[in-house]
Amino acid sequence: MSRPKIFVTRPSVPKEGIDLLRQTCDVEVYNEEKPIPRDALLKGVAGIDGLLCLLTDPIDKEVLDAAGPQLKVIATMSVGFDHIDIEECIKRKIVVSNTPHVSTDSVAEFTVLLMLAVGRRLFDSAAAIKNGEWVYSWSPLWLCGQGLKNATVGIVGMGRIGQAVLRRLLPFGIAKALYYDVFHPIPPAEEMGAIYTPFEDLLKQSDYVVAMCNLSDETRGIFNKKAFGLMKTSAVFVNTSRGGVVNQDDLYDALKSGQIRAAGLDVMVPEPLPKDHKLTTLPNIGKYLEC
């Protein structure tokens, strides 16, 4: 009996996982450490029984057709799975799996890192030292920024990672944690003191607005001109969920005009963001604000 054929789209998938697959399957791994080109993906999936992919790999009808009717399972090494045509997979009875716990702690830590770095103006401070501004510009409130203590933090999307972020914020002495989630109530979050708040009210009240929601038809572009217009002018916006939940043109306008104070982004559209994208022209958007 022939062994199942598996195609893996990136060599950085942990060796332990590949070795486990090779015990029972014939495994081919794309050998370049970058997103697999479309033509290589279409060629690689031909005749396979299983696919192990990443967020950077759009798995649509064309890819499924190229794979053939024997394809039984697609596993993505990610929490999100909107890069996979789920409806088409359902039609073809292809099982789709993800790794929901693989990055919970690291994303939660990085979210708090961004909140601190942007709020406390770490990037501006580093640039000021590099540019020799410290000698001439120091004053008691120079590059003071704003901290987490006594801040109201609004978390949009209180799933595993949202709860992990909240857990890490509590020791900083935040004044209040608000959350918005379509699946409320979220008992674990409320046991930590989080208060369910309608989306627009959360935006109005929060000093930090943190996007932790899944990307769906309902959340695509949810952070738009209207949303930024409801935020405090002193608000810090952080997105470590998915780039598609933000209208980046509206975010640029909000930052450029001072409608919100600053933003920290871990995700964008597209990824990576082109070097000449207008958002990249705003690395020190808070540079000329006092505190």
UniProtKB/TrEMBL annotation:
Boundaries of every D-isomer specific 2-hydroxyacid dehydrogenase NAD-binding domain copy: 113-285
UniProt keyword annotations, A-Z: Oxidoreductase
Keyword Oxidoreductase: yes
Gene3D superfamilies in UniProt: NAD(P)-binding Rossmann-like Domain
CDD domains to which the protein is assigned, alphabetical: GDH
Entry's Gene Ontology molecular function annotations: glyoxylate reductase (NADPH) activity; hydroxypyruvate reductase (NADH) activity; NAD binding
InterPro entries, A to Z: D-isomer_2-hydroxyacid_DH, D-isomer_DH_CS, D-isomer_DH_NAD-bd, NAD(P)-bd_dom_sf
Xref: SUPFAM superfamilies: Formate/glycerate dehydrogenase catalytic domain-like, NAD(P)-binding Rossmann-fold domains
One Gene Ontology CC term in the entry: cytosol
Pfam families, A to Z: 2-Hacid_dh_C (PF02826)
Classification via PANTHER family: 2-HYDROXYACID DEHYDROGENASE-RELATED, GLYOXYLATE REDUCTASE_HYDROXYPYRUVATE REDUCTASE
Protein's UniProt name: Glyoxylate reductase/hydroxypyruvate reductase
Native source species: Trichonephila clavata (Joro spider)
Gene giving rise to this polypeptide: GRHPR
